[in-house]
What we know:
Elements: H1 2-6, E1 17-22, H2 54-64, E2 68-73, E3 78-83, E4 88-93, E5 99-104
Antiparallel strand pairs: 1-3, 2-3, 4-5
Amino acid sequence: MENALRHTPAGTIINVRLTDEDDGPGVLPEDLPHLTDRFYRGEQSRTTPGNGLGLSLVHAVADLHRARLDIEPLNPGLRVNLAFAQSTARRGRDATGSSVAIPVGEGTRR
């Protein structure tokens, strides 16, 4: 990120993507639509520690930042991809003089 902000001209499109992928037991198809619901725990996960907030918090962050959240079942496992909206950024300085990017434009929500 720092290099992209520092070494590209203003108006450059910078894509930020975070992906978490595992080869665990995955999720049942009937659980997929509920994975971002607060406190939702699928039947398979009810005997393991947790409170069902993880993906609901990721979903909230995605909404706040106009990011796209994709959850894809793998066989085995699960892939969660968080892609922040493509946008141009204008550069500025914060109170300490450090360079900051301020997103400009519309994003994709899911």
